[in-house]
Each structure stands twice: as structure tokens, then as C-alpha cells.
């Protein structure tokens, strides 16, 4: 019968132990935590018309993300999915809301979604560079944007940024008012204050 070398067995056990310890450390370093929307979040959409500027805002929406936060720093964003019910966007005027929701085809496409596909965290500048797919009125387009972020003591993360888009790129016809006397501009700016907490 072949006998095992005690030294070989000892080295094999040691190598196995080192592997599992290293795997555990690596898992902790790359740990991702589920985050959701926290109070204080808001999305606003601003635009122009031939008479005056306008604003619509929403504070009720969903976002789930997997973030790696350690030592008061954002290390990584593994995933982020954002969903805003169209009719949660409100202005100060009911007529504006009705026309805007109609222009966005809210009865058919009732949600605006954004799904992140790639994120680069620039820790030195407290900045994230994001690429993802924005779906608006049933049309999906890849967009890129940047956002500044801050990490609070409770490890919540606040992202702030803005992105200008053209409604026509999503096959949306800008709404008109007063028999066409008031015409809304094609370009709008989406402003984001997104607070995520685990």
C-alpha cells in the first residue's frame, strides 16, 4: 500500500487554508450591499417654451442598486435600476400635467426607466461616470451622464447630476397650449438628487 508523505499532506492542508482565507478576504473587499431610495430624493424636469420656462418634479419613484461602500468611500456600483411612474411627474398646473402626460403616452407607457450598464467611480473627484439605457415613451436610448456623490456617516449615498435630452430623440412631440400659441421647446433637462440607503 502506498503511504502518503506527511510533509505533502501538511503542505496541502496549509495551501487549502490559505486559499479559503484569501477567498474570504476577497469576498469582503468586493462585497455589494442592496440599496434603495431614501427620503430627500427628487427628480425634476425643466424646459422652455416661447412664453416661459417650466418645471415638473417627482419625489415618488423606485430605485434598487448594489453598491460597495467602505471606509466612508464609494468603491463600486455593481448595478442600478431606476423606475419613475410618468404620472408622478407634476407641475404647478393641472393643464400642464395633462398635456405633458399625454405627450409622454403615459396611458400606454406608464413608466420611465433607466438601467445602468457601466459605471466608473472617480473617488478623488467624488464623481461617477454612468452609461445606461433610458426608456421613455416606449423608446430606449443609450445615454451617458455624470453625477457627483457624497457618502454620509450612515453609509447612505447621495448622487446629484443632470442630463439634457431632446424629446424628439424619443419620438415625443413637445406639447402645445392655447391653440398652439404656447410651444414647448424640444430640449429638456433632467435634474437628479438621488439618495440611496441600505
TrEMBL record:
This is Lipid/polyisoprenoid-binding YceI-like domain-containing protein. Signal peptide: none annotated. Residues 34-197 form the Lipid/polyisoprenoid-binding YceI-like domain. PANTHER family: PROTEIN YCEI. InterPro entries: Lipid/polyisoprenoid-bd_YceI, TTHA0802/YceI-like_sf. SUPFAM superfamilies: YceI-like. It comes from the Bacteria. SMART domains: YceI.
